[in-house]
Amino acid sequence: MSAHCQLTGRKPGFGNSISHSHRRTGRRFDPNIQRKRYWLASEGRHVRLTLSAKGLKTVDVIGIEAAVARIRARGGRV
Fold this sequence. Notes:
The chain has two helices and four strands, in the order E-E-E-E-H-H. By secondary structure, it is α+β, with helices and mostly antiparallel strands. The chain is elongated, with a radius of gyration of 16 Å. Helix 1 (53-62) crosses helix 2.
């Protein structure tokens, strides 16, 4: 599963792990991605979305219909 949010577009960030001796090695900061299934009443079916934790809260605020409309406006597939 790719670590990006369909609604907010959050993707992994990259940086360095720095040890006690200050050696640097590459690392990846992944967003908190969850897969959630929602009932899309307008289409009479369930949709499964890959969302970040902030994306889940956004769906709670604006509703699933508006969230799906935003994803489709960005060119995403639902």
